[in-house]
Automatic annotation (TrEMBL):
Gene Ontology MF annotations: protein dimerization activity
Protein name (Swiss-Prot/TrEMBL): Spo0E like sporulation regulatory family protein
GO biological process terms, semicolon-separated: regulation of sporulation
Pfam families: SpoOE-like (PF09388)
Domain of life where this protein originates: Bacteria
Species of origin: Clostridium argentinense CDC 2741
The organism's taxonomic lineage, starting at the top: Bacteria, Bacillati, Bacillota, Clostridia, Eubacteriales
Amino acid sequence: MFVKVKILKQKINSFKTLLHLLLMFKKPTDKIVVSCSQHLDEYIVEYQKLKKFGA
């Protein structure tokens, strides 16, 4: 479980950075920005579930 949490933290940080960079050049409604944001949301929710239910 610990490894999964660690990987999720890395994914979250990577997607946060990517989203920040995308927003420097694209509008928030651009398809790629929305997609990146949705993936980030999924990873955050998964991370929170793991932390809450015993990681």
